């Protein structure tokens, strides 16, 4: 029998009967978070995790649909209901940000927009792209200006569920805005080398390209923040843009040997703007091996 099935059976037996498999999986993750937060709980969320585990086990809440619940200091304060970022910001200003948790939020998808631009690879011949993202604190959105804006360079990574920021980015953004970012909880995140516990926050984001903001409005997105591994500076690790750009816009490349990435409102507008190449002339990217890793670029 496949070993993973034994693990699944053990997970099911460890919980009360009658729980959905999705709930059991979420409980498994929450128990991992509980163990990690027992060692370090910067955002004071251990009471929330313990209360949410009990709420799932007693069927007080479920993770079906797109409803969320708001928790503060181990108590349910709102929900289940549709996620409203304004309610999060109000609770964060009143109760938090420490000790506040939003259960059930899974990266709300922003509305699509009408824009178009292209990204050139920083290293010719490699389909790796960097993008500049401008960030603001949603808790101060009424008074935010360019003076409260932090612009960072990110790896445009389609495999990242959430935007990834450094600890120092959070410190700088909170310094510029004069207040804390709204926290929605923590998650176990899968990286290329290990599972890590990452704090989750909400930021307002925009794309910075050719000296201007591309998106006509600031977009509320989730970002994860994890500490740098021992011995590594946060500057040696790449920020990741996350998947929110792909929810809002169409992102594609063409077999034209330029390795450019094109971002726009929809595929038809992009293809009408570009010269369609002959795919038979496309050159494959270089083969990467452990002895010949792709360069990191500027």
UniProtKB/TrEMBL annotation:
Q: Which domain of life is it from?
A: Eukaryota
Protein name in UniProt: Uncharacterized protein
Q: Which organism is it from?
A: Penicillium salamii
């Amino acid at each position: 029998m496949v070993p993973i099935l034994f693990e699944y059976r053990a997970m099911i037996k460890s919980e009360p009967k009658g729980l959905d498999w999705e709930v059991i999986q979420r409980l498994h993750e929450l128990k991992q978070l509980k163990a990690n937060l027992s060692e370090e709980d910067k955002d004071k969320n251990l009471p929330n995790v313990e209360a949410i585990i009990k709420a799932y086990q007693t069927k007080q809440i479920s993770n079906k649909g797109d409803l969320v619940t708001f928790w503060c200091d181990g108590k349910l304060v709102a929900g289940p209901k549709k996620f409203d970022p304004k309610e999060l910001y109000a609770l964060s200003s009143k109760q938090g940000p420490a000790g506040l948790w939003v259960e059930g939020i899974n990266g709300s998808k922003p509305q699509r927009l009408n824009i178009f631009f292209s990204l050139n690879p920083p290293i010719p011949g490699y389909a790796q792209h960097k993008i500049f993202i401008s960030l603001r604190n949603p808790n101060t959105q009424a008074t935010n200006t360019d003076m409260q804006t932090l612009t960072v360079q990110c790896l445009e990574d389609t495999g990242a569920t959430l935007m990834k920021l450094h600890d120092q980015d959070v410190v700088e953004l909170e310094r510029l805005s004069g207040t804390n970012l709204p926290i929605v909880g923590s998650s176990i995140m899968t990286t290329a080398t290990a599972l890590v516990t990452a704090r989750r926050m909400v930021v307002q984001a925009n794309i910075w390209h050719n000296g201007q903001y591309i998106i006509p409005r600031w977009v509320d997105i989730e970002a994860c923040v994890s500490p740098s591994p021992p011995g590594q500076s946060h500057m040696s690790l790449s920020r990741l843009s996350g998947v929110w750009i792909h929810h809002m816009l169409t992102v594609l490349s063409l077999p034209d040997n330029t390795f450019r990435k094109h971002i726009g409102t929809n595929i038809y507008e992009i293809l009408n703007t570009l010269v369609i190449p002959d795919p038979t002339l496309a050159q494959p990217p270089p083969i990467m091996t452990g002895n010949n890793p792709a360069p990191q670029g500027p």
